[in-house]
Each structure stands twice: as structure tokens, then as C-alpha cells.
Amino acid sequence: MKIAVICANGKEGRQIVKEGLERGLNITAVVRGENRSVATQAIQKDLFDLTASDLKEFDVVIDAFGAWTPETLPLHSTSLKHLCDLVSGKNTRLLVVGGAGSLYINSEHTAQVMDAPDFPDVFKPVAINMGKALTYLRTRTDVRWTYISPAGNFQADGVKTGKYMWGGEELLLNSNGESVISYADYASAMIDEAVNGNHIRQRISVVSE
Length: 209
Fold this sequence. Notes:
The protein is α/β, with parallel strands linked by helices. It is 27% helix and 22% strand. The chain has helices at 11-22, 52-55, 75-87, 124-137, 183-196, and strands at residues 2-6, 26-31, 41-44, 60-63, 93-97, 144-149, 153-155, 164-167, 180-182, 202-208.
């Protein structure tokens, strides 16, 4: 299996590359500048400059793109559209590092995490734009995509426990009543999905046990 990790220099991208290589998978880092991941194979190219030819040899493409400033937030949608167009109609699977803000907090699926009164205002613009990207992704029936939302508390420096639970469209709590996962455990879940491919054209979620 050949896997490309786009934006492999980011914090989650580096974790995914590391996890994949530790399992003996063939991982290529896709980076805009110098490769700072542990991958020895790299494509040095801006995401928007990638072509279908660049990705044609990969079984799975993992999109770890993230944007945080007001002027770059719309890139969540435009970057995803670009990647979808590159793998349209092909067997290549597109796995997306998603957000938790668009997870539902009721069984009717009428209220999302970002709608809650205690959701921090500072994170709302990111959550809204990542939610728009997911809405767009759902229209792409020509792409074998999977969108993986982390738990509400996504911990960059959290430890790797190796234990997690899959969820669906709703915010999932663990046995301690918490919605939390480390970047390392999320990377494990991402690589598991890359290998197994159990959730084609679905949004799923993951939480530490």
C-alpha cells in the first residue's frame, strides 16, 4: 500500500507519517517546503500545484491541511475541492483530517458542537469553515472519501495510549464522560482506516477510550 500524506510538516501530518512508517507502510510526505517529517520519500510541492499525475500511484491520500487565519480559512473548501478533482473517478481513497465542531450533539442532528453556548468564540471561524468543507465533500459521489473528526479535546501533546473508539456523526464520550484524543492516537486511527477502508463516503469520529 502506498500512502501520500499532504501537509506532512504539520503537527498531525508528522504524527500520521510517523505512525505509518512504524507499521512498515510505504509513506510519501507531500510538503510545500523542506521536508520536516521522518519520511524519506517526499514530494515538494504546494497543495494547489499538485496534479493528478502526482497522486496516481497512491492507494490512499491523507489530507492533513489546516488553516487558521481569517484570510486563509476558505482554503479548507478550495483545497479539498482541488484534491477531490485530482482523484475523481479513481480507486485512490481520500482521507481527511477533519474537525469536531461539526459533530452533532443531538440525535435529530439539528445542533452541532459549534452551536453550543460554551463553544469558544475563537474557534468558531475554523469550525464553520471546516464544516463547510465537509458539506462540500458530501456532494462528491465520484470520490472515495472518508472524513475523520477528532474528539472535542484534540491534544497535540497528549500521550499515545493505543486505545480508541470509533463513533459516527455525533460527539462521542468515553467511559469517563470525556471527548478527548491525542494527536498520536488520532494518527493510529487514521492509519487503521487507511489500511482497512471501512468507511467509504462517510464522516466518522474517534475518541480515546
